Structure of Hpt domain-containing protein:
Amino acid sequence: MHDEEALFRTVHGIAGRFAGQPVPVVIDALLRQLPQAPGFTGADIRRIAEEISVGRDPSGL
């Protein structure tokens, strides 16, 4: 559970700082800052980046 919380908090922080930025910029931030998570794919990261890019916070926090 602690790992999931860290993941969601990181996504939430990135969403706050990078909302409205181009998808590649958000992807770069996610790749640099996200903790390792088993089963997390490039498609997952792109989907999250697309949400953040249009101003949404996919973390649910």
Remarks:
- The chain is about 65% helix and 0% strand.
- The mean pLDDT is 91.
- The CA atoms of residues 21 and 53 lie 5 Å apart.
